[in-house]
Amino acid sequence: MRIKNSIRMLDAFFFKPVPITGMVRMRILVGLMLLVQALTLLPGLDHFFGPDAFVSTHSLYGPGAPHLRLIDWLGGSGTAVRTVLGIHVGAALAFTVGFFTRTSGIIAYLTLISIHHQNLTILNSGDTALRFALFFLIWSPSGGAWSVDSKFKTAIPEHPPWALRMIQLQTAAIYLFTALSKLNGLSWRDGTAVYYATRLWDFERFGFDPVFNSLTAMKFITWSSVALELALGTLIWIPALRIPLILIGTAFHLGIEYSMNIPWFEWIMIVLLVGMWPENRTFFPSLSRRVKSVQS
């Protein structure tokens, strides 16, 4: 009986139709992240990916390595770099506005992987998170509303949320395993880890000496960050705690964004947290009601 109940719960979790608002929000936010990331690559495009890049793909992989590298396949020239990036930006823009959503998403995914495989040394974990979010959104009905596609097709009010659930599970896993790995470190257990992290000059952005020079404050921030990550990996599945944890987690990432320079990582994690927002709850209820009244 318990097994049958568990199977029913899992089936409802992945496949019971829900409003597609969560998937639509994620499509728009992930698309915007793809665009801004791509545009910020422009100043160093040749240095990162061109024929005279700081790190060549041959030194990263060696000959015959099975990686998707469209830039190399097109000759590896500066023109090839700009061609692949141009296709990527066009596909990301189409995906954001929901124009041929699935097709543009697939193209954006392939070009994103190709750009990432061209130079792994400039990536961080946020890039990996962005790839898996885009991958699952491709197979969701994220273009079913607030999109160009929905203007020419019947709107999709509800749909099984399995793709969004996969993103949510991966997001929770990121926080859970990050917290567990930190607990293996002595500096995290004794409360000094954040103190050392704020002294890494190549990651520094803005300081706040009254806090960063206080051992008590550093220990509180260190331990509370681990506790928050544990909560975001586990307690976030409790409906009553979900929205408060999302808001606290967003503030947490904004604090790191202020103090540390980890390109786009915090914003990508905020996007993933938005993906945890309950499908039946809107950000601005009064605005949503006005939009529905206009559409009807």
How do you describe this structure in short?
This protein has about 300 residues and is an all-alpha fold. The chain has helices at about 1-15, 20-40, 45-50, 55-60, 70-75, 80-95, 100-120, 125-140, 150, 160-180, 185-190, 195, 210, 215-235, 240-260, 265-275, 285-295, and strands spanning about 20, 160.
What does this structure look like?
With 296 residues, the protein is mainly α. The chain has two domains: 11-161, no CATH class; 162-278, no CATH class. The relative contact order is 0.12. α14 packs across α15. It has helices at residues 2-15, 21-40, 45-49, 57-61, 70-73, 78-97, 101-118, 125-138, 149-152, 162-182, 186-189, 193-197, 209-212, 215-233, 239-259, 265-274, 285-295; strands spanning 18-19, 158-159. Strands 1-2 form a two-stranded antiparallel ribbon. It has 17 helices and two strands.
Question: What order do the helices and strands come in, and which of them pair?
Answer:
Blueprint: H1 2-15, E1 18-19, H2 21-40, H3 45-49, H4 57-61, H5 70-73, H6 78-97, H7 101-118, H8 125-138, H9 149-152, E2 158-159, H10 162-182, H11 186-189, H12 193-197, H13 209-212, H14 215-233, H15 239-259, H16 265-274, H17 285-295
Salient structural properties:
two-stranded antiparallel sheet; 1% strand; 296 residues; globular
Tell me the strand percentage band.
under 5%
**Tally of extended strands?**
2
Fraction of residues in helix = 55-70%
**What spatial form do the alpha-carbon principal axes imply?**
globular
Question: How do the strands line up in the largest sheet?
Answer: 1-2
